[in-house]
Design a protein that fits this description.
This protein has about 210 residues and is α+β, with helices and mostly antiparallel strands. The protein has seven helices and eight strands, in the order βββαααββαβββααα. Strands 3, 4, 6, 7 and 8 form a five-stranded antiparallel β-sheet that branches. β6 and β7 form a beta hairpin. The longest helix is centred in the C-terminal third of the chain and has 15 residues.
């Protein structure tokens, strides 16, 4: 039987991807001496927010997601960030591969909402591997499953995620609106001769400030 081990060497922002993408530099070892002909690798990446500290600004920003600070012992739990996969070519003993990690800046997505609030430091991640491995076996061809207990932890700098977002959405972010609200805003934008969505929101906020006592 194969004896695989996985280790994340690094995570980098992919500068030439058409959509936002991180890339994990992954080291795969085979320790039984079996030659791997091919590996269809799957990976579940989870964020473990309880494994890092937070400053006052981050605590305030995360209140919407995890509640007040005194409840974090119950609410600050690991959550799924993404599923990703790649095909690994044949190797013996050890190989290095790139694992694509597509990401989004949609602030309705739990992970993006969390990452957006982090000012600095690291993001504690756990990579949980599975998949199908093709080997020679005893008959010339064998198929084995990668067991789910194979995993590796990695602390990704927050700056890596921010670099990825800045490459695709420099100085901006995303909010999802209902269709009715978007139509109202579009009408308002046209009626007032505004040229950008920033100017629409700024005008509405300014009007709200004037009404405040």
């Amino acid at each position: 039987m194969i004896d695989l081990a996985f280790r994340i060497d690094d995570i980098v922002s992919e500068p030439y991807a058409a959509v936002p993408q991180l890339t994990a530099r992954l080291e795969i070892s085979e320790r039984s001496g079996e030659k791997v002909h091919a590996l269809a690798l799957r990976c579940q990446v989870r964020i473990e927010p309880q494994r890092r500290g937070y400053d006052a600004q981050e605590i305030g920003g995360l209140a919407d997601q995890f509640g007040p600070r005194d409840r974090w012992s119950q609410t600050l739990k690991p959550f799924l960030w993404m599923h990703c996969s790649t095909l690994v070519r044949g190797f013996s003993e050890m190989t290095l591969v790139d694992l694509p990690m597509p990401v989004t800046y949609d602030l309705e997505v739990t992970a993006s909402k969390y990452l957006h609030q982090l000012g600095s430091g690291e993001v504690p991640l756990i990579f949980m591997f599975s998949g199908t491995c093709f080997t020679q076996g005893t008959s010339g061809f064998a198929v084995e499953q990668v067991p789910w207990h194979l995993e590796d932890s990695y602390r990704m700098p927050v700056a890596v995620w921010r670099e990825c977002m800045d490459q695709h959405f420099p100085g901006s972010g995303w909010l999802r609106l209902s269709r009715d609200v978007l139509e109202e805003l579009t009408r308002y934008k046209a009626e007032h001769g505004l040229t950008s969505w920033d100017s629409v929101v700024e005008r509405l906020l300014s009007a709200e400030r004037v009404r405040e006592p």
